[in-house]
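User: Second chain of the day. Same drill as before.
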Amino acid sequence: MTQKELATEIGRTASWVSQVERGVLPVNRLDVLGLVADALGVPVQDLHPDGPDSTEAVKAVVAAAEPNDLVQARLLISGHPALDVVLALRVQHAVPDLVQLSSAVEDIWALAHGDRFAELSTVLGRNLPRLERATRTAMPEDRPDAYALLARAYQALAAAFVRQNEADAAWVAADRSISAAEQSGRALDVFAGIFRLAHAFVRLKRYDQAEHAAQSAVNALSRHVEEAEQSASEALSLLGSLHLVLALVYARSENRPAARQETEHARRVAGQLGEDRNDFNLEFGPTNVEIQAVSVAVDLGDAGEALEVGEALDASALSIERQARLAMDLGRAHAQLRQVGDAVRHFLHAEELAPEMVQSHIAARAAIYDLMLVVGRSAPPELAELARRADAMS
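Assistant: Same format as last time:
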């Protein structure tokens, strides 16, 4: 492989590869070592004698890495993703394997739903450049499918960035997903991208922008649902999810009536849908509406209502991310009531399901910090250790 070919394969620059080869730039991070070893088809130990002796070992170590490990993913969206194609339009490129790329996108979403962000960053580093090139090199009749896969990958990246407090990067990823979705000709995928964009605005505390994005989408989609017969379930999933975004926006803005009204809108849409689905990886349905209702109630300070709704829920059929979110919000509700033991129990359960979520979620860390202030030096060991792991001691 040439330096340029390897750089393209791993989503880096030829200059970066050159510096690594010459020993100017050391590579010690296991996720990057794993990425390069994968591209070269060699064990990690061939690149680093002290490294793990298998790709699975690398994945295990990477999965246990510090939270917010999306540095490589940020680099992927920092600039144009397929400059080699732009500068060499007449060069023959291999026909992209869309079946293989579709499988890769499924893996990307599985990692995103599992809050396995370090692995996600590595897998994206390998596949996002391939997806970008596929949209430009596929046969004309296959390009809509390639764009649809690219849109889904960027949606997953936007969701991961939001959950890791990388909202500015989430904005970029969501915007790219919307552009790719429009190129695919699949209108509903555009709305899925707007859902991700609105969540990025919420995390940035740009509530006016979040409201504008979500409400304009709700207005257009409501008319579509009234008129359309095909894809009705997918459209309902999107419509209900956008109502939940608005409920979150109003809860964070302390607009109690509007937050409750949007939650009720989402409940009605879920009732029309009649089941839990995973259209566009939204996991929308009756169960997820109630999970979000718990979150809204906690944000509004209605801990008793949150516990009444949340303790009765069975979220076992949903993703690890949704289960962990419910446990975390129940922990926050108990913390508001100063019920230390119950709060710690739920936080530990959330941490067991998705360690990176508890360790990076601002509201969860704030709740743990508040508990430490309440109990002071008499804090049980489980709470003290939890606060240390979540960096909520100061």
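The chain is about 75% helix and 0% strand.

User: Great, on to the next one.
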